[in-house]
Amino acid sequence: MFTYIMTEAEMLLAELIWQNEPIGSGDLVKLAAEKLDWKKSTTYTVLRKICENEIFQNVSATVTSKMSREEYTRRKGERYLDENYNGSLPSFVAAFLKKKRLSKKEIEELAALIEAYKE
Length: 119
What we know:
Layout: H1 8-20, E1 23-24, H2 25-36, H3 40-52, E2 56-59, E3 62-65, H4 69-85, H5 89-97, H6 104-116
Antiparallel strand pairs: 1-3, 2-3
């Protein structure tokens, strides 16, 4: 499943929505003006883009998420693995560990995660 990767500006608006949903589109415009110093047209342009990409929806002037922040982050991570490591988490970890040593605590945390997800 293709997951759209939001731009920095889109992420700024997404964070406002996730923190305040459900939010009226007019209230979102006010919030974006206050927090991001955006004009109404900027907010609606960015909102339209993230709605087109199935992350949010604007129904009857109420903006809500179609995907939680956690789901978006998970899908973004899966896409990164697919594009860069053929979907292989072990390949990613091996590449990561070539430059970084893990502490004993980090190793224990990873081992506990693996143990929790064993089938």
